[in-house]
Every structure is written in structure tokens, then in C-alpha cells.
Design brief:
Length: 387
Amino acid sequence: MQNFDYQTPTRLIFGKGVVEKLPEVMGQFGKKILLTYGGGSIKKIGLYDKVKELLKDFEIYELSDIQPNPKYDPSVLDGVKICKENNIDVILAVGGGSVLDCSKAIATGAKYDGDPWDLISYKAFATDSIPIVDIITLAATGSEYDSGGVISRTETNDKIGYIDPHNFPLVSFLDPTYTFTVSKKQTAAGCADAMNHIMEQYFCEDSTILNDGFMEAGLKSLMVNAKKCLENPEDYTARAEMMLTCTYGCNGIYSLGNSQTGWPLHGMEHALSAYYDITHGEGLAIITPRWMEHVLSEKTVDRFVKYGVNVFGIDANQDKFEIAKKAIQATYDFFVSVGIPMNLKAVGIDESRIDEMAHHVAVNEGLDKAWAPLTEKDIADIFRASL
Ligand code: NZQ
Ligand code: ZN
């Protein structure tokens, strides 16, 4: 077991109707709020009106139209400008992971004198930030309980995932009823994303019985509940368990004391969604079984056996490579069963930029140090196998 230093400052307020506590919570941070949201889903589900009504005694500024794979320019830069010009006390992010990630970059960027991109690209480190509160409306990223943020910069094909303790929201409201309207596509993609957050921690050198059990249960919970949510989008119990399982995703709690893995699937997928603006969870699902096949070896096989036996119930009394291959097939079949298009061509990606993307990943993501190290050629091979 490895040493670790762990702290999560986020207060989680979970369940039906919890948003009623919003005025009391926001009041702790001040009067001037920047309300951030995406392309309009929060208006369709009535949450925008609800928030405005609850916060009628506050001074509210707004930043709307934050897109999936949130953009540095205009969204982050516009938000920083509003905060600086109006001396904003607190940011309230209402929406999916993209809205929250954008808000995280605004929160630190507004307290920094230089170019906010410095903080995203680790050229500088934040020393202060505006407090962040969120109402998360999509079960997927776990951004509501973590210090990560992912921001895209179109002109350089960058999609950078970075970690900064200032990125932790101070309060996250999780009401599963707000996820009833999430489309089948986004429900499946959210499930695939959250499964990948677990896999990125599970496939490692050094783990514990405790962490393996927690992660295996997380994977089973996601698969069972995603299916239920697809069958009946208003199944509260399924939406609720899915939401909480997703929330744990990137917080580190699943793998305290485990060895590092390098998060290879995210390193590769971020290039796909940077170059082609695809849905993050779909990109992950497509490359996952191809990555598994590519890295399966005498050195890694035991981990795939454990995964196959404990997550998919594959009979343990077989050749270990047989079990591993069945586990990989079961992973692929699950993603097909929830409706994810399982090849890159189906999401608009062809051969033309594969070498360029593989080079970008090899230079920027450090995957030569991953649990199963990947060279630029390995990355290109995995992309090609995913076509
Ligand atoms: O923009 P609106 O109109 O709100 O619609 C959104 C968007 O079109 C819609 N949506 C959200 N809640 C809804 C809803 N539609 C109906 N009903 C609701 N209740 O869903 C679409 C996708 O939203 P988005 O926020 O992009 O999805 P997600 O939460 O999956 O976030 C994806 C982003 O998070 C990053 C990804 O790379 C991607 O940029 N990630 C962030 C992480 C983190 N901070 O820890 C970790 C992840 O690995 C991930 O990389
Ligand atoms: Zn992810």
C-alpha cells in the first residue's frame, strides 16, 4: 500500500428537493453570484426558474451557452471577465460536468493576474479562487466531488485535464430527479465515463482487497443502474445510485493507497474529443476494449482475470488468457447493449488524423509511464483498431 495525503472539502447535499437549501448555502458566501449554465437544458427542466426564484434576494449575473467539452474562448474568458468586472462572491454552476469544469477555470482565473490558460497548462499555480457551488444535472464526470477540470482550446487542438485543489466545489447539490431528462445517449455515455474512471484506477500494479471490492461493486452498480435508467428514465432508485457512484469517480476515494496508473484511456480520449469534439464517454467506450486487447500480456493478465471473474462472473476455472479475452468481450458487449456506437467512424473519426493525434498524446500525456506503458506507435495502433 502506497502513502497518500487525502482531503476533500466538498459538502454533498443529496436527494429529492435538496435544492431548497440553496439560499442558506449561498448566503454563506456573499450576495453577488455568477450563475453558469449550458445550452438550455436547465430551462427545459424548470431548474433555471427554480434557482432564480430561490435566489431572488441575491444579485445574479449569468454566463450561458457553455458547450460540452467546454471552451477556453469564449466561455472561460467571458466568465473571468464578468467576475473581475463585478467582484463576484461565488459561482453557482448548474448543469453537467462541462458547466462545472468551465466554472472551475473561471473561479481560479478570476483571482489570477495573468492569462488563465497558465493555470490550466500548469505554467503557474493558483493561490486563490472564487468559491464554487454546483447543482449537477448529469451523472457522469464526478466533477462535483473532485479537483479536476477539463478545458478545450480549439485553435491548438488542446483538451487539457488538470488538477488543482482550488477546483473542489465547496458544496454540491445532487438531486437525482434532475437527471430524469438526460437523454439515452448521455445516460449511456455518462455510465461509460464513470466506468472508465473506475477502470483507470483498477488496472494497476498495487491495490488492496478493500479497493478492489469497492471498485468492482462500483462497476456492477453502474452497469445495472444504467440499464434501468435507459428502460425507465424516471426510476428514482436507479438514477440515485447511478448519481452517487459517478460522484465518487475521480475523487481518489476508490483507490486510496493504490499505485498510480497514468489514466491512459483519458489521455487518449482527450485527443479524440479535442480534435473532433465528440462525446467524452462515447470516445472512452470505443477505445477501452481495444486498449485492453492491446495491453493484454503475461504481465497484465492477472488483473484482467480478476476483473472478469469478479465483475462479469466469468468462470474462474479456465485458462487465464481465455478469461481475460471473455472479460474484454463482455466489456465491449455491455457498451453495445446500452447503445454506444462502438467504432470511431460511427462518431465521425477517420484515419486521416490518427498519427497526428497519437503524436499529440505521446508528447503531452506521459503514457510511457502508465501501468501498461504506451509508445506513440501503441497509441496509433489502438486508435486504428478502434476505427
Ligand atoms: O448544455 P445543456 O443544454 O445543459 O445540455 C447538456 C449537454 O448537451 C445535456 N444535459 C445536462 N444535464 C441534462 C442535460 N440534458 C437533459 N437533462 C439534463 N438534466 O447533456 C449534454 C452533455 O453535457 P456535459 O456537461 O458536456 O456532459 P458531462 O457531464 O458528461 O461532461 C463532459 C465533460 O466533462 C469532462 C469531459 O472531458 C467533458 O469535457 N470531464 C471532466 C472530469 C472532471 N472534472 O473530473 C472528468 C471526466 O473524465 C471528464 O473528462
Ligand atoms: Zn472521464
